[in-house]
Amino acid sequence: MKMLDTGDVRLHYRVDGPDDGPPVVFSNSLGTDLRLWDPILPMLPKGLRLIRYDKRGHGLSSCPPAPYSMGALITDAERLMDHLGVRDCVFVGLSIGGMTAQGLAAKRLDLIRAMVLSNTAAKIGTPAMWNVRIAAVQEGGIEKLADAVMERWFSAGFRATPELELWRNMLVRGEDAGYAGCSAAISGTDLMAPTSGLRLPVLGIAGAEDGSTPPDMVRETVDLIPGSKFHLIRKAGHLPCVEQPEEYARVLTEFLKGVGHV
Ligand SMILES: O=C(O)CCC(=O)CC(=O)O
């Protein structure tokens, strides 16, 4: 078990692969922990340094009182990468993790060679929508939202499988304050201007049945960055790395090859 104490949060992280391998950093979505990437990591080429972490209020990381800002989430990722001596990584961010990627690239381009913006956007939802969600969590806990979240996370086909229970458990066993805190961070974030100024290789990934960040929303954001690639995964919702891990790992591997990381 590895932990970084930044002073205002303790971040749980995990590194797989050789210390001198090309680094790939993974940042996961709202209500998930670093196990989100378990389905795809064994399918990636050997020799990469695979770094993942639980953002504040999630997984085994500490849970400071809500609300959080996007700036704090970006600084957490920055501190972890500085702590691990990571430069020139490929940063793979899913949803709120993809917002962190965009903000970090705008702040510290020395850390990021290329990024994957998976099921994310420069702006997700509206403050009014997030306020309703935050109020629901404060009143009834994450459980109150869980069935609706499953409909956005997964396609109907996947929701009919027994594996659904595992991911639902991950969501509802999370900290209410962590969920509400990160929801507030998303609510206050509009990265359209900084993301438009980014110049680096980008791969956008969307799920055809994503009820949170539909394909058009992902595409609109990746199109802000000239030369970006885009890949649509069919039969997948908001978490295609879970539903279609082979395809996800294949397009990620092709992208890693394209930017000279493999
Ligand atoms: O997944 C995220 O990080 C934010 C988008 C979202 O709210 C997903 C969901 O619908 O639960």
TrEMBL record:
Pfam families: Abhydrolase_1 (PF00561)
GO biological processes: beta-ketoadipate pathway
EC number: 3.1.1.24
Domain (AB hydrolase-1) ranges: 22-131
Gene3D superfamilies membership: alpha/beta hydrolase (3.40.50.1820)
NCBIfam families: protocat_pcaD (TIGR02427)
UniProt name for this protein: 3-oxoadipate enol-lactonase
Organism listed in the record: Sulfitobacter noctilucicola
